Amino acid sequence: MFRRLIPILLAVAGGFLIATWWPGAPGAIRTMLAGAGKGPTSTAPAPPPAAAPEPEKSALVRLTDAQVAKVGIRTEAVGEGRLFRHLHVPGTIVPSANLTARIAVKTTGTVVELRKGLGDRVAKGEVVALLDSREIAETKGEYLAARVSADLQKSLFERDKALWDKRISSEQQYLRSQASYQDLKVKEDAARRKLTFLGLSPAEIDALPTQPEAQFERQEIRSPIAGRVVERRVDLGAAVGRDNLETELYSVVDLSKVWIDLAVSPGDMPLVREGQAVTVRAEATGEAASGRIVFIVPVLDQNTRAARVVAELANPDEMWRPGSFVAAEILVSDKPARVMVPAGAIQTLEGKPNVFVRVADGFEARPVTLGRSDDDSAEVTAGLEPGEAVAVANSFTLKAELGKAAAED
């Protein structure tokens, strides 16, 4: 009988050792060994099968080239670029103060002819009006008289000098002639300066000896700059001049360059400097042009509490009209970036920024790390390499397709 117990005891001991030292032994072996010890009626339930791991969700949107074209998805290769930051402010077109002139008279008189009307173009030095003035006639007469007297005394002085050099006349006579000539010359120069002050050019003054006396009271009024007449302040026959009378005849503006008055808030003033580039757009037509800041008024406007910033804009076609309202963008930052993507290429997936990279089978949603950004683009510091093509237009369609595929799974 002891001999019959020996195999049973060995089986039980073997099963215990296997269960202790080989916990992962197959269930069938453990059952067989355990059954050997318990007899033919002993059975054990099999463990349930392990659950298979869930497959990872695909971040790939499969599209053919024809489907990409049909949906209107546009791709671009990413690369280096520059980040531009702009300050958006309102502005008003005004005439340049450096190219504005008021044509005025400097003597009393009567307007006898107006040669220009509103909107007419004038050249620099062109006659725009004629004036009759008694003061002009008297001043011209004084100058001519002083000139004749100075010329006569000059001849006497030169004769007395020649006689004195030959020791024919006395030194006293020579010195007296010299003093008289110098005195008359001073009076002639004073009369000439008075005519210059009244608006006569050097050529007009030199031509006075040949001018008819009937035109002595006539004065030509000339434009000091080239431009267009934007205002006429008098009519024919109007009395002009001093003593509370109108002195300005016309206002002329050269519109080849204009100024833009920009209203900048005090909080944005540290960002604005002279020389910065400015882009202006007309609110009515959408036309755009570029200029530069030329002046920053150091005092804030008492009514609006805004600072006046002046930008200059070339206007060769006179498209920009003074008084028009414009939207202006001041370039306040310009920095390089290694990899840049348009703002429209960035989509948020599971709370993180992603871009859709073009691959052979379609588009792959790839997480990226963003750095600095500007009005239109963003810098990518990780996740993209220069030269990779990403979806820059209609990328939201790819996001929707990716979300639909995830919902179906």
TrEMBL record:
Residues of the CzcB-like barrel-sandwich hybrid domain: 100-244
Domain CzcB-like alpha-helical hairpin per the UniProt entry, residue ranges: 138-196
Entry-linked Pfam families: Beta-barrel_RND_2, BSH_CzcB, CzcB_C, HH_CzcB
InterPro entries: Beta-barrel_RND_2, BSH_CzcB-like, CzcB_C, HH_CzcB-like, MFP_Cation_Efflux, RND_pump_MFP
Keyword entries, A-Z: Transport
Residue span, CusB-like beta-barrel domain: 257-329
Keyword Transport: yes
Signal peptide from the UniProt entry: none
UniProt superkingdom: Bacteria
Domain spans labelled CzcB-like C-terminal circularly permuted SH3-like: 339-399
NCBIfam families: RND_mfp (TIGR01730)
Family: Belongs to the membrane fusion protein (MFP) (TC 8.A.1) family.
Name listed for the protein in its UniProt record: Efflux RND transporter periplasmic adaptor subunit
